[in-house]
Design goal:
mainly alpha; 734 residues; 3-stranded antiparallel β-sheet; 3 strands
Length: 734
Amino acid sequence: MAEQQQFYLLLGNLMSPDNGIRKQSEETYDGIPGQNKVTFLLQAVRDATGTEEVKQMAAVLLRRLLSSSFEEIYPGLTVEMQTAVKTELLASIQTEASPNIRKKVCDIAAELSRNLVGDDGNNQWPELLKFLFDSVNSQDVSLRESALHIFWNFPGIFGNQQQHYMEVIKRMLVQCMQDQENPQIRTLAARAAASFVLSNEGNTPLLKHFSDLLPGILQVVNESCYQADDSVLKSLVEIADTVPKYLRPNLEATLQLSLKLCADTNLNNMQRQLALEVIVTLSETAAAMLRKHTAIVAQSVPQMLAMMVDLEEDEEWAMTDELEEDDFDSNAVAGESALDRIACGLGGKIVLPMIKQHIMTMLQNPDWKYRHAGLMALSAIGEGCHQQMEAILSEIVSFVLLFCSDPHPRVRYAACNAIGQMATDFAPTFQKKFHDKVISALLQTMEDQTNPRVQAHAAAALINFTEDCPKSLLVPYLESLVQHLHVIMVAKLQELIQKGTKLVLEQVVTSIASVADTAEEKFVPYYDLFMPSLKHIVENAVQKELRLLRGKTIECISLIGLAVGKEKFMPDASAVMQLLLKTQTDFNDLEDDDPQISYMISAWARMCKILGKEFQQYLPVVMGPLMKTASIKPEVALLDTQDMENISEDDGWEFVNLGDQQSFGIKTAGLEEKATACQMLVCYAKELKEGFVEYTEQVVKLMVPLLKFYFHDDILSPLTSDPEDPTSDPFDPP
């Protein structure tokens, strides 16, 4: 009893807002043997006098314990204890008064059951199956809810008995979806049906047999959305993603419903975006199926465009110096992304005729939001409608360039966006055909001193343009480009000193780098115009908020050095190396997310190319941080649905759904830096040859295990083109 009381205190401390107390409690909790944890946690969950928070915490921890450490803990329990755990869980579901705790106990039961279905498909907890059958037919609504919740959480619960119980399962789901008195039962039954379908994605006869449940699921999707519950709609998106063929017999109805919900402005943005997601996902996972329903797809296009018009007036917008991350929950971003994906999924032959007239009409609208949306839509469809747009590119470009002088700054911004995107999507044709018009329009827009945000975006579009521009086309404009960029750089350096604004300067520095990179030795006459100012920025821009500017300037200096060659760069090389070395010395003090790190690593490699063998003397300083970055271990995790609710993809995590309510997560933040660092190591070896020999052993030790990242023993790598075909080259783009 005393131990149990102490354990209650520990559970309370695990929820403490005080970091110190919480950390210490976590250490104490981790030190308790697994079997003891099971006993303590189960008692806490069952304690009728316990507070809701403590019971909830205990339930979550018990589920996690069974999920992560079942093999280490459960088989070591005595048979009596194993039986007691099962009995207590079933008793708790039947007697627990709090719906929230009851749901959490159902999750524990589902998790235990998941682990008790053996390799032979035998469920070693037959009492739970009996409980499911009894509960689903019970008059007690909470028991029916519990049974459905367990089945939703673990649809494989019947194991090798599934075929035997197929009709019973179907009847149970149909009956619950028709429960007119209890909407929550209908919702749970629809989610459970979707979960069952998803877990049997490869079983075509089963999918066929259950296809007559889909109209019922769609009906519940519609109802639940108007009860502010989008869980069934999310299940429909999952089906569209994983088992689109299940929707085929009722595809028309599925699309009509999605379209209706997407168009209904009484629903919240998230629900409307999810409804649109059903259609867009199908364009990616079942394009052939969707092409037979082009009329509905054509009706969805105006919905996407309407979302893109959903912009807020913002007086401060044009002067903002800090760029916010795109708000991925906003209708405008969701609509634009949907358009991009549906164009790629269905192809320009279908999508361009559907959208062309809408865009032309929007571009003539007196309201700036429509003109903005029309231009952003043009940017979005370029990749998917490549062939069709290329045929009318002259007409499009002439029209878009007019908007570089639109009266509204956000429309001018959108015009720059469209130019930058087309410069990438249609390179090098775009550069060859329109260099004259485009360069002059962008340089003119870059002079828009009163709207820094527009200036910066014009500079960004210029970067896209020059990156893919053949050198011979750029050289005639070099004098004009350089003069413009120099004037703006000087003005913006003054602004940085006087007001601390840096947005335009960040982009202009990269524009200079891009022009130098393309112009190569033709940039030599302009070297002395820029290098003193660039060195000045690196020396003085040491504040935290200027890290990105400093990183981009380091990149610019190294790209100019590479462009003009060793002879011209040599007088400055020593000073530049000292600046880089100083930053390198402070490298250990840089935060992990410091943007300077990746710029530094790439700059060192360029300096190595410029200096050749003379770079060898710097290796002792450079290699430490480079090896540290190349050794970053990405965080990975196996998460279930409950855990997923607490982590969002915005935190730098990406997920792959493994089915059965589980997802594999990898934290991708840092992976790009790791990849760059590995490339740089290869670059050093290539440039320095025998000069790199003393590092060979440690680099090989680091690199060889990384090959397993591609060819993992258990998980088929996404880089492998065809699992059935061993001859397919894993390095062909997927």
